[in-house]
Design brief:
The structure is a single chain. About 25% of the residues lie in helices and about 15% in strands. With about 260 residues, it is of the alpha/beta class. The protein has one domain: Rossmann fold (3-Layer(aba) Sandwich), CATH 3.40.50. It binds S-adenosylmethionine. InterPro entries: Meroterpenoid_MTases, SAM-dependent_MTases_sf.
Length: about 260
């Protein structure tokens, strides 16, 4: 259970686990099969105030099948679409069942980098609205990062939205990520402490990782990396992240309410 994303965050042992053990709530947004929440329980956190949310309602049952903990892990799966229109989001599972201003810690691991800039800003603002009003409430996680921020077109067949528009995703530098959250804080009316966002320290990187793991299956034997998703058009740099391209890596971040 040592290799899940949240446990690699610098604040996992020093802040997340102690606060969970003292009763804080935590929402894992884009939780997939709930692996990070199971890791928290494995490390001694009480399960009662852990919430998972994802676009796909099927993950709820699948995660119980995978972890075989239907009888012990409370049902706190709130399927929702963070990109839905405003009315749907305000009446959706997260806002109705968790509620605005309620959650002490929100984890977004390998999540925001799925979206283009305007959608990232929209989702960041929504996340801030879910965050507890208590000073010290925190949003934290990790995602793929670059030194030079770029709105990047994806490769076919990922390059089109369902309605046929070009699909891009915004790849952040620490600076652009920080700026986006400052803008989101202003838009949501949430005061923030100085934002922390930095590349994962090289010594903490797994020796075997040939890139930022996107979680997708590889067709070949080599690991599937974020670069395998991108259109080659504007790019001339090496294909593999981390090992041969020092301008890319995993960002760890925390956004704290003041
Ligand atoms: C790359 S996975 C990250 C999973 C997990 N957090 C981790 O670190 O391994 C991104 C997750 O975001 C979810 N997702 C994608 N678009 C979403 C949306 N619009 N609303 C909610 N969840 C979404 C996906 O279903 C997927 O489970």
């Amino acid at each position: 259970m040592g290799h899940f994303g949240l446990a690699k965050h610098p604040l996992y042992h020093t802040m997340v686990l102690p606060r969970l053990k003292s009763g804080d709530s935590l929402l894992d947004l884009g939780a997939c099969l709930g692996q990070d929440l199971r890791k928290c329980v494995f490390d001694g956190a009480p399960p009662d105030r852990l919430y998972a949310s994802d676009l796909f309602v099927e993950y709820e049952d699948l995660s119980y099948e995978l972890w075989r903990d239907r009888d012990t892990f409370p049902n706190r799966f709130l399927a929702d679409d963070v990109l839905s229109d405003n009315d749907s989001f305000m009446q959706g599972n997260l806002m109705m069942n968790l509620g605005p201003g309620q959650t002490d810690m929100i984890v977004i691991n390998m999540f925001l980098h799925l979206f283009d800039y305007s959608n990232q800003l929209k989702v960041a603002t929504r996340i801030l609205r879910l965050l507890s009003h208590k000073p010290g409430s925190i949003i934290l996680g990790s995602q793929a990062g670059v030194v030079e921020p770029i709105e990047q077109l994806l490769k076919p067949p990922f390059d089109k939205t369902e309605d046929g528009r070009k699909r891009t995703i915004f790849r952040h530098s620490p600076e652009s990520f920080t700026q986006m959250w400052e803008d989101a804080g202003k838009a949501a009316g949430v005061p923030l402490r100085p934002i922390t966002c930095e590349f994962q320290k090289p010594e903490a990187t797994e020796a075997s990782a040939a890139g930022v793991d996107t979680g997708l299956e590889a067709e070949e034997k080599k690991p599937f990396t974020a670069d395998d998703l991108f259109s080659k058009e504007p790019l001339t740099r090496p294909k593999i992240l981390l090992q041969s391209a020092p301008e890319t890596g995993r960002l760890h971040f925390s956004v704290v309410r003041s």
